[in-house]
Amino acid sequence: MKRFRSLVLLAVVLLAVFVLIMGFYYVQVSGNRTQAFNTGELLIDQIEVLLDRNREQVASLTESHKEDYITRARAVSYIIDHEPLIGADSEELKKIAKLVSVDEIYLFDVGGTIYSGTNRNYIGLNMDSGEQIGFFKPMLKDRNLSLCQDITPNTANGELMMYAMCWSETGDRLVQVGVKPQSLIDAMDENSLGRIVDGLLFSEGYTVIIANAGTGVIEGSSKAEYHKSTLEEIGIDYKNRARGEVSHWTYKNRGVHSYCTLEPYGDYVIVVSQTHSSANQNITRGLIMMTGYVLIALAIVFFIVRKLTAKIGNEHKSANTDQMTGFLNRRAYETDVLNAAKDALGQEYVYVSMDLNGLKEVNDSHGHEAGDRLIKGAAECMAKVFSKYGNIYRIGGDEFAAILYLPPFELDELKLLFKKRVKSWAEASGLPLAVSCGYVRSADNPDTDPSGIAKLADAEMYKEKEAYYSETGRDRRARKN
Q: Which of 312, 320, 324, 425 has the lowest tally of Cβ within 10 angstroms?
């Protein structure tokens, strides 16, 4: 009987070990999946920031080129107005083109037909001869117009050009100049989707894809073999997945399972995937270690420790959690940051001091319920951007702090993402959410204790708050809020 009981006890222990190991495996897989999705969202946010920045750069450069080329067209018109015979001589026009640094010059009559130019083969073409030349047809009805195209393939041979056109001062001709804007073409190539993907830093096992939202054609990818394929051809049903803001799922392509994150963004669909094998490569070692620990400790302390841990954890969480935001409260802040430097801050970190702007004004004008929404909205933005890197604390009514552990090169991107989240929330809610922030890296102040780091971050935050009220011109009496 004793032997039987021992065998039963052993069987129960082994079953418990097996159940616990399988639970550990499930938790690890689930955690790795969540981490893959979170990393996918972070990479997508980085791509969106790059797309916006590159789009603005190209647009600004294009506008400056347009102004310049219209000015050159007017210069050519001025020369021909004062020397009309030059307009009929293509060789003389070539000299003028060289003088004003353009590639082509064409003269149109008032009906929109080319009667002279640097390339006589085009004489006789009119504004109905092609899409490129037809861009300028509105000028036939409005002689006050001066127009310049974006980069466009020309009608004759499809070469990428920019054309600018103006009326002569005498009003008897239209003057067009054509320029191949190599610097702008180079800038567009530098800011292409392929270059954006090539410039990202991500671990092995990840695939990044940027596709056309309308056709699904892949225009940029970290896998060269995907370029010019479609999302559907590689097993991604983007038409159904792209209906919401962000989609997460597991998909299979060519026998390989991957965690996939997808988000539509303007004219594009951005996809980040990580293979199961790369996401879960740490599980085997973890299972071995877990098995060893469980065999030693499970039969003796498992149930007792579980109950005690649950009880202590609930009490600790209740005592250290801010009820409105779910963040750690000032009590936890003082324990973690001010009185336990070695335990809480034993590695390099970034201290973030945050304060809402204009909370008092919202309370006074919209009521305290709106003020509470503002605080919760700020907390939501902080949680989405910062929570994966460390703890966030609510240390006062509208005062927050965060301790973040992240690589130094990610800090600037994180600042941009937080500003973007705050702006997006404010636009969606209709409430004037604005958060002043001060960021201080411990590595930049190696001889300063946590309390000193906090003061430095507060000082940076107040500088930003001063700038905010100076720029917005709002009531400075509300500055503390």
A: 312
The answer to whether the Cα torsion of 301, 306, 311, 314 is positive or negative is: positive
Give the angle subtended at the CA of 118 by the CAs of 113 and 121, to the nearest 5°.
60
Model-level pTM greater than 0.70?
no
The reply to whether domains 62-186 and 321-478 share a CATH topology is no
Q: Which CATH architecture has domain 321-478?
A: 2-Layer Sandwich (3.30)
Asked if residue 404 lies in contact with residue 394, where contact means CB atoms within 8 angstroms, the answer is: no
CA distance 133 to 206: 45
Q: Can you tell me the distance from the alpha carbon of 35 to that of 28, in angstroms, rounded to the nearest whole number?
A: 10
Say if domain 62-186 classifies as CATH 3.30.450.20.
Answer: yes
**Residue extents of the structural domains in the chain:** 62-186, 204-279, 321-478
Helices (H) and strands (E) in the chain, counts: 14, 15
The predicted-structure confidence for 293-339, as pLDDT tens digits, reads as follows 766 775 565 566 566 666 666 666 668 899 999 999 999 898 877 65
Q: Has domain 204-279 been given CATH number 3.30.450.20?
A: yes
